[in-house]
Write a structure and sequence with these properties.
Arc Repressor Mutant, subunit A; homodimer; 2 domains; six-stranded parallel β-sheet; DNA-binding
Chain lengths: 223, 223
DNA sequence: TTTTAGTTAACGGAAAACCGTTATATAACA
DNA sequence: TGTTATATAACGGTTTTCCGTTAACTAAAA
């Protein structure tokens, strides 16, 4: 007896990537693409119309409603949705966030198509799957974080840190080229507090100065 | 009489995008994909082995050897190569650079696949082709640049400015989170000179501070 | 209920960035 | 042969960032 095909929905703001994934998946006879979305809005509406799929392939870097926010939406609505997250960058913090939000698969876009197949077949069984470059990153991160000051890591060892709401808010304003004073005025807090946030951001993100913060912000679509 | 197919080579560090483009092109019976490269090195070697194609589809954002550098290589070797440049970002400065280096087609990755077909069929006849979002950008840029201070624009009106070699060098080091002093030591020049360069960069790029420079550097793959 | 995470705030001193402006030398260009 | 672009350098003053450290209050979690 042959079981039903795995239904897949793809969400990515780059149509060409959707085409690419479809091209990879259509050769497999246990997988079926049942739809795609070109932005977070479309995807959320698709869910709201009570559509379903076995596996969601989700780009994290989408304008307006990001993949992250889609995951938040799903979590909030208590929708259990096996998901493979696609990302342009290898970023350990991003991976942590994504795991926190319940996604089990994570692949860097630069990785070839066949890994998506493995990822789909893993997450459908609620198993984790990390693409090759991600695995490397996790191992590297684990090593350094364990040896170095465990400033961010808590008891779990790996599932940690990330920025607070306020810190993200401050970071965004820094990335808008605003000075401490301007940020303080905008957020109705003391300049000293903003400085503290800036300091904590530099430590948490492990960069040298505001330039590092700006690059981090750019990388994580906070700009 | 039916003419020979248009041979196309694709270069992009994201395999999935190559797959996507192949998927789009393989439905066309006047176009034939004759090869692909996953980075700038591979592509340059491909050319060095005296391979040829009618149209090159070139991603600008590749690690190590970028698309820009590939264009420089082709120009330097006097290889006339009709090229469609792919970019993740809509950036007017980038477009200008690319035009300077001889590419005639320019498409943002977010644009759907069919535009690539138009682009290929344009550049093969040495005609320019700009994707929809790029056209918008050019129009917008033209309007503001004309109205506002023409600080960067020279006689040509559109094909202008850009940073000097030295400025780019300094900018890259700033984006590496180095201080003025460190940069000065690395380049064997005075701190004062580095400050002058930083100042000029801020003015030229029209940003407020090093954060703006960092973001510009990130956007233009100088990081 | 203690513990932890987050937000707020302060302070003093060092370092770096920012600003305007001027100036010299060189190489390329018209 | 001027003109222009580029790279170099200096200077004084202002503003901002950076660093370490401490601490109080709150809300949520263990």
């Amino acid at each position: 007896m042959k079981s039903r095909k795995i239904s897949v929905h793809i969400a990515d703001d780059h149509k060409i990537i959707i085409d690419g994934i479809i091209a990879v998946l259509e050769d497999e006879d246990d997988i079926q693409v049942v739809g795609y979305s070109c932005n977070g809005n479309e995807l959320i509406n698709w869910f709201k119309e009570d559509n379903k799929c076995d596996v969601l392939i989700l780009d994290i870097n989408m304008p307006e409603i990001s993949g992250m926010e889609v995951l938040k939406f799903l979590k909030q609505k208590n929708i259990f949705q096996p998901t493979v997250v696609l990302s342009s960058y290898d970023d350990i913090k991003l991976i942590k966030e994504v795991i926190k939000l319940g996604a089990k698969g994570f692949i860097a876009k630069k990785c070839a198509g066949k890994h998506i197949l493995n990822a789909i077949r893993s997450v459908i069984h609620d198993e984790e799957y990390f693409g090759p470059s991600i695995q490397e990153l996790i191992v590297k991160n684990f090593a350094t974080k364990t040896v170095l000051n465990g400033n961010n890591t808590n008891q779990d060892g790996i599932l940690t840190s990330s920025l607070t709401e306020r810190e993200i808010q401050v970071l965004k304003l820094i990335a808008k080229q605003k000075s401490t004073k301007e940020i303080a005025e905008e957020l109705f807090i003391s300049s000293n507090t903003v400085e503290t946030h800036r300091k904590n951001l530099i430590k948490k993100i492990n960069v040298k100065n505001v330039v590092g913060l700006a690059l981090y912000a750019a990388k994580n679509n906070l700009v």
